[in-house]
Each structure stands twice: as structure tokens, then as C-alpha cells.
Amino acid sequence: MTLNIKKYAGEFAENKDTARELRIGKIIPALRSKKKVVVDFSGVSGTTQSFVHALISDVIRKYGDDVYKLVFFKGCSPVIKEVISIVFEYMQES
Amino acid sequence: MKIYLSNSDYLRNFESFLRSFDPSDPSKLEITTHDRWINVHPVVLTMIAALARQLRSKDIFIDEVTAASGHYLARMGLYEAIGKRSPFSISEHEPAGRFIPLTQIHNQMEQSRFITEVIPLLHLPSNRADAIKYTIGELVRNVLEHAKSRHGAFVAAQYYPNANNVRLGICDTGVGIKKTISVSWPARTDLDAIKLALTPGITGKTKREGGTAANAGAGLFFIKSMAMVSRDYLVVYSGSGLYKLTKRDKRTKGFPRLRVNPDRDKHAETNGASYFPGTVVAVDISLNQTREFTELLSVIRSAYTKAIRERKRDTYKSPQFI
Fold first, then answer.
1. Between B7 and B129, the higher pLDDT residue
2. Which of B67, B121, B227, B290 is deepest in the core (most CB within 10 A)?
3. Does the distance separating the beta carbons of B112 and A14 come in below 8 Å?
């Protein structure tokens, strides 16, 4: 399954409500079925740590290894890559 | 309540502005101005708008503005915000006058629309606009999630060509930081609460490291770090507490060390400021910084992760040797 972030959250992804809906409605059901998830940030210029946290922190906490095997990030600008890396890193520390 | 608009209400002089803010008698608001020149940080206007929103127009008073720059108040939407007829007629703004007038944001949809449609009014290059979008996105969301304000957030910003920075203010008249943070962390004073809110990984929503599914307790630390790196001011003011990050030494080369404990940053503070019923955040965002936003985030990542690791280590139990 591919999640087109631009389609749901626009060119600057900051809406945490949208992130939460994507997490609960799309990412978690896919992981429960052991399906691959591609989170596609193509066309998105930037995002906030809050958005990415709302999108994946709980998934990392609950699905651990499955996230690393099944969730992929595509079309990320260097800023977006960095924000995603921040959330992955501190969730593994916590 | 009384507020005086001077000719130098910058963040550098924010304490001086606060000394002229008299919050007694919340049943009315009196605004007076410098007679020759008004120069106010947008955050001051957000404070007036937020306070005024709690009153009826008839209980708000503004002096006849004689200052040559008085039209700025009209251009930023102050008269409209306080329900008064503007004495100034404003024509379309000139290209140099890049600003975001006072805007009230009640919910996430309005926030998203604001970020998409209003921030372009600053006409910033895209790599700089993202830092502004980031800051506004995080700060306004903080208000919407935590402040429990009936009136949402008030936002205003102005680009200053000489300083080449954007000065941004966000204000609410919600429950204040102390009440929010105290749900999970002990905060004796408003200033203690502000410092906790600036500490990475601390959120009022939980004591758990890594936060909840919705909150990490990172927003204000990120913004403080961005201000620190680009030598900008950051003010957080809530209740009687005021924390102002001051400019670091120009001679420091490269990235400064990002400190987890806000006490260790160069700053001014007080717990005896005129009481503000809510939260005020102001930041000056320099557009001169040559460092890329990505590089900045990378440094913040290291500091943030280290903070969580160290705090977690503090909770480890030690073996008992006898």
C-alpha cells in the first residue's frame, strides 16, 4: 500500500489530525496484515516533527521490528528525511 | 488592564514593555501609545488582540494615535481586533511591507489554511519559508492542543528588511503552561513550568519517555534550538513567568552546543512578571543563516536523543553491593 502524503496533508505536512487518521486508518491495519507500507512524501516540501510523531511513533512503539521490515519512506527531501530519522531515533531510545 | 505601546517594543526590550503592562482590573483594557513613534513587535499586538477578545468593545479604550507610524496598527489589523474604527485609511501594502496581520486561529483546519495561504504573504524563498511554517505549525498546534482557550490562537508576523528577519508572535488566553505541564510534571512556579516545557521529551500529556502517540514534548525545544543556532531571541511568557533566550556570542563559530537544560542557555528570566492569563510565545527568525535547515535538524536530533537517553539512564536501578 502506498500513502500519498501530499494528497492527504498538502505540500507542507503539519496537520497532526491527518497524521493520526493515516496511522489508525491505513498504517496500522496494513501492518496487522503484514503488508508493506510505502509512505510517499513526493511533492511535500516540509513537515514538522509533530506530524511525523503522530504518524509513526505509536506504530514504532507497538509494532517494533515489523516497522523496520514493512514501512518504507519514499520521495523524502533531506529535511523530511531528517525529521523522520529524529522520530525513529528517539522512539528507539525511549 | 493597561498596555503602553512604545517606540521600541522589540524582544530585546520585552521586559521593559512588560513593566508598562498593568493586568489589574481585567474588566477593561486601556491602550496608550508613544506620541511620536510606535515600533512594536507583532507579539504585542497578539497580546492586545487576545486580551481584547475577552472584553466587549465598549470596555476597550485606545488613545488617539499621534505617532507618525500609527498607521502600522491599522495595517496589522489591531483596530479590527479590538472592535474599533480605524482612524487611518490604508492602501494596499507596498512590496517591502511584508507582513501577516493579526489572525485568529480556532482549529487545525484554519491552521492548515493559514500555513498554505497566509505565510506566502511574507514572500520568502521556499527554504526559508519552511522554517517559518515549521515554527508556526508547531506553536499554533501547541495552543490548539494544550491551551484550552475559547478563542484559539492569535498570530501576527512582520518581515524586517534591515534586520532580514521575521518577527513572529503567538498568544492565547488559555490555561497557561503551568496548568498544562503540571498534569504530569511538578512545577512549583510559572517559570518552572516554562523551563519544563522547553526541556526535550517533557510534555504535560505523560511522564513516559517518547511521549504519547500524539505528543513527544519536542516542539518548544526544537524552536529554542533553531533560535539558538541562528542567534535569535525567543520569549516564552505565561502567568508570571518569563523566559527569554538572549543572543549568543557572535564570536562562537559553527553550531553552538544545544543544551537540554534551559537554565544553561544564555537567557533572562523572572517569575515576577505582570500576570498574563495565558501563554505568549515570540521569536525572531533570522533569514541570514547560512546553515541549511537539514543540518540544523541533524544537530537537534543528536541533542534530543542524548537528552532522552540520559534521563532514561537516571531511572536505571543500580545493583546492590554488600
1. B7
2. B227
3. yes
Residue A84 near residue A76, CB atoms below 8 Å: yes
- The domain ranges of chain B are 98-314
pLDDT in tens, B55-104: 999 999 998 988 888 889 999 999 999 999 988 887 655 544 589 999 99
Out of A54, A78, A89, closest to residue B213 by CB:
A54
In chain B, which residues have their Cβ closer than 8 Å to the Cβ of A52?
none
Inter-chain contacts counted by CB atoms under 8 A, chains A and B:
106
pLDDT (0 to 100) of residue B92: 56
Judged by DSSP in three states, B172 sits in strand
> Is A24 within 8 Å of chain B by CB?
no
- Higher-confidence residue of B65 and B289: namely B65
pLDDT in tens, B137-156: 999 999 998 999 999 999 99
pLDDT of B304 reads 83
Burial B39-51 (b: 16+ CB within 10 A, else e): bbbbbbbbbbbbb
Give, as one character, the DSSP assignment of residue B92.
P
Provide the residue range defining the domain that includes A82: 2-93
CB A50 to CB B134 under 8 A?
A: no
This prediction's pTM: 0.91
Closest by Cβ to B301, choosing from A46, A48, A89: A89
Predicted pLDDT of residue B95: 46
Query: Which residue of B112, B210, B294 is in closest CB contact with A79?
Result: B294
Amino acid at B165: N
Asked if the Cβ–Cβ distance from B297 to A86 is below 8 Å, we say: yes
Looking at the complex, report in whole angstroms how far the Cα of residue A51 sits from the nearest Cα belonging to chain B: 9
Please give the helix or strand (H or E) that residue A61 lies within, else none: helix A49-63
Grid cell locating B42: 507583532
Mark yes or no for CB contact B210/A89 under 8 Å.
no
Render pLDDT for B232-271 as a digit per residue (tens, 0 to 9).
899 999 999 999 999 877 776 667 788 889 999 999 999 9
CA nearest B315 in A: which residue? Answer: A94
CA distance B79 to chain A (A): 31
Pairing verdict, β B2-5 and B29-33? parallel
Q: In a 3-state reduction of DSSP, which class is residue B35?
A: coil
What superfamily does domain B98-314 belong to in CATH?
Histidine kinase-like ATPase, C-terminal domain (3.30.565.10)
